Amino acid sequence: MAPTPNDHSPEHPDRFAQTCERPDWPLIDAVRAGTADPAARDHVHACPACRSGLSLLEGLAREFAEPAAHPVPEAVDRAVRSQAHARARAIRARRTKVIRLARWAAAAAAAVLVVWGAHWLAGPQPTASKALGPAEDLDQSGGVDIVDAYLFARRLERGEPADPALDLNDDGAVDKGDVTELARRVVAVQPKET
Amino acid sequence: MRLALCALAVALATLCAAARVSTAAGEPYPTEPGVRFQAIDVFVDSPEKLAAYQVELTYPAATVQVVGVEGGAADAYREAPHFDERGKTGGRIVLAAFTLDEDRAPEGRVRVARLHLRVRGPATPQITVRPVTAARPGGDKIDVDADVRPARRAEGEQATEA
After folding, report:
1. pLDDT digits (tens, 9 = 90+) for B18-64
2. Beta-ladder partners of B149
3. Inter-chain touch A187–B92, beta carbons under 8 Å
4. Does A157 touch chain B (CB under 8 A)?
5. Mind listing the pLDDT tens digit for each residue in A21-78?
6. Which among B46, B43, B41 has a CA at the least distance from the CA of B144?
7. DSSP label at A46?
8. CATH top-level class for B32-150?
9. Contact between B53 and B151 (Cβ < 8 Å)
10. Helices (H), chain A
11. Residue from B142, B146, B80, B82 nearest B116 by CA
12. Partners of residue A154 in chain B, C-beta under 8 Å
């Protein structure tokens, strides 16, 4: 079977001997890219069909290599800018809202702290204690001493009813804690005045 | 930040080392020349069972500071008596205690408390004790005597003087 003019396969003994009937595009592209062997390059430059194909391919390559010179239509540009501005405004608004919320939260926390501090300062002080009175003078000796604390503890131990006035620590119950409180007051030493 | 943490660690280590040195030297308090530690015992002499007592001690505040209050020898008064912390430095301290256990209430001369003192200067401090009140079981008041004397170490007891 006679070879066709376009048969440029490497195993063909006389592959570039004739003129091609139509361009061999892969061969031409290899020549254009510089990867073809010298025989192929010589053939493409000698063969009218391949040479015109090479011109076409080189023109296309130049065309695609250059950046697009088409200007963006004004309407499209305006629309894109408008969308970008709208998005930026939305982001800024969201940030401002968060910052405003944080400021309000900080102010509220400070206010709570101030109110709590004032309440704490104005509240009843734990060291304030009632003065000893007749109720604590259990033996009616005219003074309150450790013997009254002893009698108080003895009454509690025996389950005798206790005078509510003996709730010396103001915990709502008359118990051993009040005995300890009475003893504490009995031994209290007033600081020297300087 | 790391530098601050390192500085803090070094400071803590230094403090710990200083504390170990102080403990090893057997000095529980910072001492200065002319300062010594001394313990005194407080006794109450009761003709009857002692259910409650209250005594008042006075001491020269310029040279004496009470640094510790212990209970006494009698079972009923082995725990530290009631006292006011402010009395440790003001020259006057009130001690008081009671027991509801009539069987354990002591009779006679009994050590009811021991005070540890920090004394400045060579002179022996003048310490006085006055019985304020006392009661027998049941609450009737009784007359008692009270006195103080330098503590004597019991066998096996730790030293109190520095």
Report:
1. 444 333 333 445 566 788 999 999 999 999 999 999 999 999 999 99
2. B41
3. no
4. yes
5. 778 888 888 898 888 888 888 888 888 888 888 999 888 888 777 766 667 788 888 8
6. B46
7. H
8. mainly beta
9. no
10. 25-33, 38-46, 48-65, 74-122, 146-158, 176-186
11. B80
12. 100, 139
Length of chain B: 162
Give the helix/strand (H/E) hosting B94: strand B92-98
- Best mutation site among B48, B69, B84, B99 for testing chain A: the one with the most A CBs within 10 Å? B84
A146 touches chain B (CB under 8 A): yes
Interface membership of B21 toward A (CB under 8 Å): no
B61 CB neighbours in chain A (<8 A) are 192
> How far is Cα B127 from Cα B91, in angstroms, rounded to an integer?
9
- List the Cα angle B13/B19/B23 in 5-degree steps: 145
- Percent share of chain B, pLDDT over 90: 66
Using CB atoms, which residue from B81, B86, B135 is nearest to A150? B135
A182 at B interface, C-beta within 8 A? no
Q: Which CATH architecture has domain A134-186?
A: Orthogonal Bundle (1.10)
Enumerate the residues of chain B whose CB falls inside 8 A of the CB of residue A153.
98, 100
What is the number of residues in chain A? 194
Domain ranges of chain B: 1-30, 32-150
Q: Given an 8 Å threshold on Cβ–Cβ distance, is B98 in contact with A139?
A: no
Q: Which residue is it, tokens 């003893």?
A: A183
**What's at B118, amino acid-wise?**
R
**Considering chain A, what is the average pLDDT of its residues?**
82
Chain A residues close to B86, C-beta within 8 Å:
188-189, 191
Three-state secondary-structure class, residue B125: coil
Looking at residue B55, what is its pLDDT?
A: 97
CA distance A191 to chain B (A): 7
Locate tokens 């079972």: which residue? B75
Contacts B51 to A, Cβ<8 Å: 150
Amino acid identity at B113: A
Cβ pairs bridging A and B (under 8 Å) = 73
Confidence (pLDDT) at A85: 93
Show Cβ contacts of residue A138 under 8 Å, excluding neighbours closer than 6 positions.
A148, A151, A152, A155, B139
